[in-house]
C-alpha cells in the first residue's frame, strides 16, 4: 500500500492529498529513510511523521484498503511522540 493511502485510511492524516503533500515535502520517513507519496509500506515498518512542532513515530500493524473510524487505530501502534522546542 502506498504511504499516502495508508496515512489517509489509518486517519493519521484526514485527506489523501494532504498526506501526499506532507510526504513529498520530506516530512515522512519509513525505517529512517525519506519516503515519497508513492513509497510502499509493509506491516512491521516504522513510520515517523512530522506534524508542525511534533514528530510521531508509529509501527504499521495492519494494512486494509478501507476501514471504519473505530477500527482505524488498530492499523498502527504509537511508539513515540516528541515535541520540538521553539527558541
UniProtKB/TrEMBL annotation:
InterPro entries: RqcP (IPR025490), S4_RNA-bd (IPR002942), S4_RNA-bd_sf (IPR036986). One of its GO terms (biological process) is rescue of stalled ribosome. CDD domains: S4 (cd00165). It holds the Pfam family S4. SUPFAM superfamilies: Alpha-L RNA-binding motif. It comes from the Bacteria. Keywords: Protein biosynthesis, RNA-binding, rRNA-binding, tRNA-binding. Residues 1-63 form the RNA-binding S4 domain. One of its GO terms (molecular function) is tRNA binding. The keyword RNA-binding applies. Belongs to the RqcP family. Associates with stalled 50S ribosomal subunits. Binds to RqcH, 23S rRNA and the P-site tRNA. Does not require RqcH for association with 50S subunits. Key component of the ribosome quality control system (RQC), a ribosome-associated complex that mediates the extraction of incompletely synthesized nascent chains from stalled ribosomes and their subsequent degradation. RqcH recruits Ala-charged tRNA, and with RqcP directs the elongation of stalled nascent chains on 50S ribosomal subunits, leading to non-templated C-terminal alanine extensions (Ala tail). The Ala tail promotes nascent chain degradation. RqcP is associated with the translocation-like movement of the peptidyl-tRNA from the A-site into the P-site. This is RQC P-site tRNA stabilizing factor. It comes from Paenibacillus pectinilyticus. The lineage of its organism: Bacteria, Bacillati, Bacillota, Bacilli, Bacillales. The gene is rqcP.
